[in-house]
Amino acid sequence: MSEVEELRPVPRERAILESFFTQLGMFSFDRAKDYVEKEKDSSSRSGGAVWASLGALGHLAAAEKAYHNMTFLGQKMGSASYLEDLLSHLSEQLCHFTQARMDLSELYEKLHALSGQKSVNSEELLSSMQAVSSKYCSKFHHPILSRVEECFQTELDVVLQLLRCQAQISEWSFLPALLSLHGANSKLLAWGQLFQRQKETRKHMFGGQSQKAVQPPHLYLWLQRFQVLLLAKFSFYFHEALSRQTAAGDMKALTARTVPDFSGKICSFIRKHDASNVSLFPAVVSLPTGERPLTHWPNVIMMMSDRAAELNTLDKVVHFYDDKVTSTYFLTRPEPHFTLW
């Protein structure tokens, strides 16, 4: 665009589109919808392609609100020529945007369906998300859509980091998992600030009004809970590595802030049931003392081999009593590569 074109007054039609997509990118879905409907009513007699498209933009705002609230999980599911060129260009990019939302909805439905399964292929999920990211990279790059593109890319980055972190924890890769967890947390904090800056005005029945922060949509809250769970899992799987970096009392206080506090729950279980040890095998965590119960490993390995089919069943606990060492063993498998005993 030339310098002369930059200095020209912005046509009203373009200003309306810019205002609409700015509000949409700031998650003000109702405000964006009300705005275009108001403009449509006040300009209904003007005619033209732009005014005819305002109704479709209202539907887009409603669809974006439904998407971010994840309601689909419950269901199976200038001059005239310049403005025409702009609208045509936007329509093409919005088609890509709509298809991207459909692809992400399918992926979220898949994640939702996998929530009750023990064996989850994290690498496959990560690959699917990376394919979506590559497919739609820069597909809706028009300046009017900059806010929409920004929030879409932030969502992709958060999900990619979380899925990558999940796969890395399952591979017991400390530093890569830590970096992914930190990256996801930083993106979520930046995303959350958008909601804190938004204010919703409410009028009271007997006069006066008040403002409060806009509540984040369900999608954001769900990703936030996912990150919190991964932090708890990371703190448990790498408990010994993290314990070497701080005092025992500080470590206990830090893990107590995770949700759920796996280490705290296991230590309480040990005290309540007079258990001698709880370990995650391969030997990555041993509570309460951190010492490896080496004399018991042959029995544990034998049970893992002989009763693998049972252990691979969701929520299955197998047990075995060895009179030679007068000990009873209980084993369960929280995920394919690790056994809790």
Automatic annotation (TrEMBL):
UniProt-listed GO biological process terms: cellular response to amino acid starvation; cellular response to glucose starvation; negative regulation of TORC1 signaling; protein localization to lysosome
Protein name, UniProt field: KICSTOR subunit 2
Subcellular location: Lysosome membrane
Ranges in a coiled coil: none
Primary site of residence: membrane
Taxonomic superkingdom: Eukaryota
Phylogenetic classification of the source organism: Eukaryota, Metazoa, Chordata, Craniata, Vertebrata
CC per GO annotation: KICSTOR complex; lysosomal membrane
Membrane-spanning ranges: none
Alphabetical list of SUPFAM superfamilies matching this protein: FLJ32549 C-terminal domain-like, FLJ32549 domain-like
Organism, scientific name: Dissostichus mawsoni (Antarctic cod)
Keywords: Lysosome, Membrane
Protein family (similarity comment): Belongs to the KICS2 family.
Cross-referenced Pfam families: C12orf66_like
